[in-house]
Amino acid sequence: MRLKPAGIYVKSRIDPAVWFLADKTDVRSSFALEDVATEFDIQGLELDWVGICWDANFRREGNRWKPYYFRGTHWDRITDDTRAAYLANSYRVLLTRARQGMAIYVPAGSDIDDTRNPDFYEQTYAFLCECGITKIAS
Question: Is the model's pTM score more than 0.90?
Fold first, then answer.
């Protein structure tokens, strides 16, 4: 939910047949990068290239992953183990769909927006870099 300020907002579900099968001239296809497919849309499928946008709902704190959900104007911790596992699995699905490559976008956050505090993203970004993800842009 807090990726919207970066222009990333999943408002409606894709039409899978069009998104996966339409050619490059169709703005509804995956080629156009206008419509976002979620982990639900791509579960069980492989894609040539995947772009993942990492929000503060699953963030690195210390040496652990911490699950959150956004409620109204703030983040709350997910304390239910089943819900936490479900969130972790959604990222696992996204991270395992690419055949040729992937790009992971981790926002820098905002010093003036408490819901996008840079601390929410910095440890996750550092962890991904430690895992071998190559930085390509600032």
Answer: no
Q: Say if CB 78 and CB 68 are below 8 A apart.
A: yes
pLDDT of residue 138: 61
* DSSP letter, residue 108: -
Residue 30 lies in a domain: no
In this structure, is residue 27 part of a structural domain? no
Question: 58 lies in a domain?
Answer: yes
Distance, in Å, from the CA atom of 74 to the CA atom of 84, rounded to the nearest integer, reads 18
What's the chain's length in residues? Answer: 138
Other Cβ atoms closer than 10 A to 122? 15
Closest CA to 94 of 57, 51, 36, 125: 51
Q: What is the pLDDT of residues 83-115, one digit of tens each?
A: 999 999 999 988 998 999 999 999 999 999 999
Hunting for tokens 């979620």 — which residue is that? 38
Q: Which tokens go with 66? A: 């911490």
Whether 110 and 45 have beta carbons less than 8 Å apart is answered as no
Count of domains observed in the chain: 1
Separate counts of helices (H) and strands (E) for the chain:
4, 5
